[in-house]
Amino acid sequence: MSAPTVNLSSVIKAYDVRGTVPDQLDARVVRAIGAAFAEVVVLPETPAGQGAKAVVGYDMRPSSPELSAAFADGVASRGVDVTVIGLCSTDGLYFASGFLDVPGAMFTASHNPAQYNGIKLCRAGARPVGQDTGLSAVRDLAQSWLDSGEVPDGTGAVGAVDEQDLLKAYAAHLRSLVDLTGGRRLKVVVDAGNGMGGFTAPAVLGDDAGLPALPLDVVPLYFELDGTFPNHEANPLDPKNLLDLQAAVPAEGADIGLAFDGDADRCFVVDEKGAPVSPSAVTAMVARREIAKELRAGRRPVVIHNLITSRAVPELVAADGGTPVRTRVGHSFIKQRMAEEGAVFGGEHSAHYYFREFWSADTGMLAAMHVLAALAEQDRPLSELAAEYELYAASGEINSTVADAAAVTEAVVAAITETVAAEGETVEVDRLDGVTVFHPASAAQPMWWFNLRASNTEPLLRLNAEGADEATMAVIRDRVLAIVRGESA
């Protein structure tokens, strides 16, 4: 009798694998996914005459070592040699995929609670594997094996499985991209949230990997690796998870605070007063540095930003001599446009930052190093430096439960455009991702815009609004919410 099976459509999403352990993800399931990954991704892109290879890493979750080992067995069962790099951040796995030029798999559920785990897959050179680029085929092949009970078990695997420590190489690569040795000494509080930032920050910003010490005094918060997250969720996008860092920075007399999510691919910044620096401001700050480098090299600097980032981002990019390119929300869209445009850098409102010099993959640590360098190269506090990039007032993302997202969205657009027309004003409407309504500055009204996007998985509408000032933003935010929540009542 075959073992009970899971519906992989419930765990294999648009961009990754994510589910609870052991009811949705166990060794048997991930072994099948590993074998399917080898068949669909690794073997077809292996050059003729060369041995097929892949790399696997994992985070600090209790289930990660067992699941990643089962996955490696599944990959090896198809004749692929597997390098296991052990504990790493997601950008550490992307580094390994780029550095070794092989496909990779990272076991992590990012900031999800302890009972979750997941897998992020990539092709050689850290190129993403999503629903339309192989993930659906991986799901379908693995599902067929699970349904038939003929799951590859790794017995008699032809591929070899070995171990390699790439932490020092990862840290050295990041340091080669940003020079932190020439500026003033900084005191930095780092909140790792018991996630992988507690593993990578001491190697990159400290001397744990055997690299020379930097002019940084790092104050650690929750560096102990613990996938049960005993102190707070490793999700800095939720303001409550920044509170400890916001208190520690002024208490320590620090210059800056950094907060990483569970797999340490995202980084959030707070200034010396403990006030958050928006990811849009970080995007613009890093973009300025990358644009200057491109111009010095005689290249055309292109910077990608998603449509939720502040209007300040494209304005500042253009003012610095760069070309801003606007995309939909989501890493697959960012990475696709980066490749199409040859972009040097890309940023999202969610604190994902992408670098051409990092195989166009996202790395929060490299973004943090750019902010540290920008701060250390001048004498002002971070609050004053960040003010150059915080030009407008933003609402942040506000979710509302609705029964019919499309109908509610159209009702909002109709009502707002009618109101604006009655005031003698005009707006621009685009549908690149949801609906964005933009009001340019006029003699009568300041600039404002809002975006409404429906969730792909829940009956939610997500609102982001921005205005030239707090009062302007609040007016348009409240107007839209009144319509959205009136329709959903």
UniProtKB/TrEMBL annotation:
Keywords: Isomerase, Magnesium, Metal-binding, Phosphoprotein. Residues 397-481 form the Alpha-D-phosphohexomutase C-terminal domain. Transmembrane segments: none annotated. Its cofactor is Mg(2+). It comes from the Bacteria. Residues 12-133, 169-274, 283-391 form the Alpha-D-phosphohexomutase alpha/beta/alpha domain. It holds the Pfam family PGM_PMM_III. NCBIfam families: PRK09542.1. Belongs to the phosphohexose mutase family. PANTHER family: PHOSPHOMANNOMUTASE. This is Phosphomannomutase/phosphoglucomutase.
